[in-house]
Amino acid sequence: MNSSTQSSVVRVSLDNSTISFARFEDIRNLALQAQANSDIRALAIDLDVEPYDPSTMGPWPERLASRAVAGSHGPGPIVEQDLIRALRDVLKPTVAIIHSSLSDFAIDLASICDLRLAVEGAQMIDTRVVSGRAAASGNAYMLPRLVGLSQAMRISLLGEELTAKEALRIGYIHRVIPKLGAVEAIDSYIEGLAKMPTRAWEVHKMQVLGQLDQDFDTAMVHSLGIRQTHVIKDRMEGIKAWRERRDPEFTGK
Amino acid sequence: MNNGPELLVRDEDGVRHLILNRPEKINAIDYSQHLRLMESFEQAEQDDSVSVLALSGVGRGFCSGDDLTASTFEGVDPFEHRKVDLEVGSGPTVLLQSCAVLRRLSKPTVALMHGIALGSGYDYSLSCDFRVVTSDIRYGDPRIDRALWAAEGWSYKLPRLIGQSAVSRIAYMGEIMNGKTAFEYGLAHRIVSGNPDIIESSRQFLEELVSLSGLAYARAKKNMLDALDATFEQSLDMNLANV
Prior knowledge:
heterodimer; A: 253 residues; alpha/beta; three-stranded mixed sheet; B: 243 residues; six-stranded mixed sheet; two-stranded parallel sheet; 40% helix; globular
């Protein structure tokens, strides 16, 4: 599959020529490895997915084969959910790069990432509801929290096509990359993410994600608990660099 | 604790102004200042002559963040019993408590921010109902640039204020916003001039807040904050109980 682990970044891609359950499982495994390997400091997913036929995705991975029940409505999206879970459990920086098209389950993959970049001219559309299918792999939870219920309904229920510019306006996309020099700009962006204090990012992220489902008082205790139980080695370098008025050199630990 | 000169308290037309006054440190907040602020928030809540609480700062900016150069606190510390000797130090108990008091004030609260609003200054602003900024402000939380982070509740508040997507920019990336960006993200409610000063420039907005029904405001605010942690049906029941 198209994936690479160059230096400290795991980078995977998904497009219509390769989309399959086997591919989802491969990406899941890479995500699990990325979180487990302390030398990995970012995960990037290149997405270029137009609406596709979900009935041509091939067999489920052996691990889940027993759960692929028969029936007119088919099995639930268990493979997709497992992939989403694995990506959510990557506490390091995760970024989705949308090259020209983003649709259906690929939207869910982008939504679970911390950051979303789109190349100028890219478009996104969720055809699941308008084609009589129900999305059930997490976007009903994620999208309203990302951009508000109003825009989430527009995207998920109406199936409106959004340009990169419009997706940026509503806050779904974080940056639109000009076509000219896009490859270099994206590589540079990901490289910058991999130089950040990864452990500090993780501690930030575990608070935000955990507290989406907590009440205020519980969230305060959660924050204090994390504060008292997670050491960030890089913080000494951060303070030292600040006092010496230079750029820090973080290890990610 | 008496309010020393490092925190000015001024009442004007129903507005209780709490003005950070450490201009030589761009109003960086040390432990004593946190205690003064928390006590002042509680006093404002109890004082019937106060309709609105406004937080601002003198000098070049609203607040440059935590005072990393502060010497050890030597006064009577009400949180002494919660201090623990860990490698990571004690938790930010006083900031957390102070922000919690500010957030639950029944009266309108507003942060009037000019110049610089970073770190703990940014934290306090997230606990206010409204945020007024100047266009040239440098506003946000750059703690991650130094591999640091706060635990005062931003991770609960920020996604609920402006949506989870923008959290990645502000919290994970440490993006410093100017006034226009903060307004576009929906975090700032007004952009005003810093001349002659932000309090003067915000006068009309403050008057609007003072003119509101205090009781109606308090109930609406309580309903909204409570509903953030409730299911839909629970929120309806709570609304009825709060009429």
